[in-house]
Structure formats: C-alpha cells, structure tokens
Here is the input.
Amino acid sequence: MTDAWDRSGPGVGVPTEARRSARMRPTGQGRQPEHRRPGAVAALVLILPPLVAALVSGGTGAVFWAGSLLGVVGAAALCSRPGVWWVTTGAPPVVLLMALLGLAVRDSSAGTSKLGTDLAKVVAGAFPVMGAALLGAVAVGAARTLSARRVRGIGVEVGAGAGAGVGVEVGAKGNRRG
Here is the structure.
C-alpha cells in the first residue's frame, strides 16, 4: 500500500520534461481536446477592417465606425475566451492609431500650423468609436462566458415565485441560492 507521500512510483528519476508531458496527457474518456484558434487570425481581424475603413474614410465618419466595430467584434468572436481580454484592452489603441493613420493619409500635404488642431479633432472624434469598440468586445466576451456556463450546466435563471418575490439561481442545477 502506498500513501500520497510515497516517492517510489512512476515518474521518480524521470527527467522533468517527460514528467510534465505525462501530466498533461488527457486521461478521461470523455475529455475532448480544446479547440485553439491562432491568435494571429484574431489580430488580423482586429487590425485590417479599421485600417481599410480609415484609409477609405480618412479616420472619421460612419465607414470608420462600421469598420472599427466589425474588426473588434469579429476578433473577439474568433479568439479564445481568455483572448477576449487582449482584444478588449487592445481595441481602443488600435482604433486611435487607425484614426491617426487616416488623418495622415487624408491631410498629408497640410502644414504643421493645422496639425495640432487636426490631431485634437481626430482624437475627440475617435473617442466615441473607441468606447463603442470596447463595449462591443465586452459584450461578445460576456455572451461567450454565459454560453459556456449554460453548456456546462451552470445556468443563470431569474424568475418570480408565487409569493416568494424574485429568486436568483446561480450555480449547478439544484443548488438554490436566492
């Protein structure tokens, strides 16, 4: 009989890499490998639509709004659930940089006398787009999290009972909290 502290089992004296790979092998029969999406695809989707929209519209207007939102929401939908954090935090700087690039393309012949005013206008105009892109990424992340919880059987149900007021059930099915 061996106890939990017995060091004479498999893996003792085996190099660290072999032990680590043995630990990472799935052992359960119902376990499925996690589908991993390459981060480069999400990064391209995050950058290319706002870039094209900025080049077409000069970094302002409805085309820039649509391109930025399309890029951010698409990238948040394509990346892994932990990757949504990177898309959410990266969306505002990407939108701002693309708006500034649109300004540079639109007014490349303008002198330095107007540059400060144009930069202030672009930053002020890009601020609502940055906020909308941030909210879009957060919404996609929240929807994916709720969807994953429902698939695992951890539901969130809100309803009114007969005379009991409003009850909230959070947790595994059958665990009533409220």
User: Anything to note?
Assistant: The chain has five helices and two strands. Confidence is low (pLDDT under 50) at residues 159-170. The radius of gyration is 25 Å.
